[in-house]
Amino acid sequence: MENLVPRINGHVGRLNRYLPFSAAHEQIYEEYQTGEDSLELQTVALEYAMLAVSKGARCVVLTGDAGHGKTHLCRRLIECVLGYDPPTSRDLLKSHCDATQLVEHVSDQQHPSLRIHKDFSELDPLAAATLLEKSAERSNEVLVVCANEGRLRAIVQSAAAGAVCFQIISLFERSFSSGLSSEDGSVHIVNLNYQSVSSLRAGGRAGLLRRTLQSWVDDGRRWQGCATCSLVNTCPIRRNRALLAEESLATQRIIRLEELFEAVERLGQVVTIREMLMLVSYLLTGGLQCEDVHKKSASKHNDVGWQYSWAFYNLLFSPPPAMSEDRLYKGIPVLNVFRRLDPGSIASRAVDDSLLNVGGVFPEGQLDLQFRLDSKLVDAAQGLDEFIGNPQTKAERARETEVAARAVRALRRRSIFDDAAAEKSLMARIGFRFGDEFLSVITERLTSPELVRLKNVVVAGFHSIQGLRMPRSEATLHLVDPAFGRASNDAAIIARRISSAHLQLLPARKAWPSGGEIWSICESVDWIDRTVVVRVQERDGRVIDIGLDLLSFECVTRSASGYVSEDFYAQEIRRIRAFLGRLAAQVNGADSEIQLFMDGKVQSVSIDMGVIQVGGS
Questions:
Q1: Which of 91, 280, 289, 446 has its CB 3.0 to 4.6 Å from that of 450, i.e. a possible disulfide?
Q2: pTM above 0.70, yes or no
Q3: pLDDT of 2 over the 60 cut
Q4: From CA 224, how far away is CA 294, in angstroms rounded?
């Protein structure tokens, strides 16, 4: 090691260009990427668009939030459909993608040409609508346009809108109930807001997050420069690479990271590809450049003990020192959601006893578990005993408490990824008591008796949200008359009763009638089921659905115990009560019998020839 000197790894510099708070953050945007630095992720959306073009599509609309890769898809279509090489396709993206010029096939004119507009927000809605209408008149070319949902609605509802615009808006609005991206194969809407960065394809292809990590972390060629750096053993960036690629638990840690991303997406958070790339870059570097590591390691007495703040599992839940929370969470908003799932803030007796009191769960001497308490270097792998000293002043006592608290959070967080002392599932350890049941419905792993029991829990949750106090084993859903809002402590008017046999719990993809159709939304993007659909089958064949994301499902199932925080779940409870009110309104108005819930019992009140009759049920 005597002959080694600090080195600069160009890969670390490239990673930092993906960060929104970096001075050179051009890598975030497709137009400024170079062939050397770009990450070519093959998405299902690209494959779907290519298939649509090959099957004779006339118009392909790419919609979704900024950052999903709409511009990237345009460039890849120029490459994959028209046969251009990457450098030429980048040039064409800048010069020929305002829809004024055709981009023809590189070799012949037998293939359909593409007319691409990479950003409809640059056009006036009238001009954009006119462009869409002209697509019906042109032959042997496909119009590809990019627009977010708000802009798309403004365009198709403008004064210049005609038959094509009407077809697009009708398809878009029906897609939420039909589950189709196209109804006739001529017009397609690829809604990238359904795209998941953590999904695993049925064919076994890794998700977008996993493939990004494989390229940036697993590829040893990108990290060769670190081998001859004198700081290789004290560099937190290099340590993150070891944790995620070199150690025996690396694969498990990546799986846990994917599961956390899945949980975030199932909370209703849309994670774009751009945001995922920014987040992975941040988890690896924490915003540090090689030069920053050199400066921090310059002191012989302080070269170890600061690196824990830049361990990927700490960066995921809290910002490193000297980085503003406001700056970080505005730049990478999804980190705000991860922060709320922080396992470092959740105490578990079984886990904490093993990690904090017994110790020895993790090997000693690991860089990310070294903490400096004044001049003393403490190894958190041995538990908390080493942090307990003999403070003489209030300031020393506060400092000891602060460092010990950081160590506790770090040990809990790392145990999530290493599965150390795990008696509970990941979902339970990040605060979701019924998270495993949610996943079991989505993956269709429940047996019939288990599904029946879970439906009873959901029914009990619906009762509690309406203010009804009924046994948890009640198999009939009682619906409070919407005119009375919710039940009081004393009595409630029951508008309707529905047997649990008429309730279904379905994953989102099974709730759509499209099934395995070639143009289904599930086949148009990297798909993940984000909701459990509660379906009520009416006698006339109609169905009434409500989709419950992870938080809404947790709200309903926790309510089954009789209490849930209405402040915390306020938005979810309002939506669920609106759904239950809609169900109650389906009652037959000709029925002269009134159901009254009183003292834990349902009684029927009817009027027969002017005589009021009361009966129990």
A1: 446
A2: yes
A3: no
A4: 18
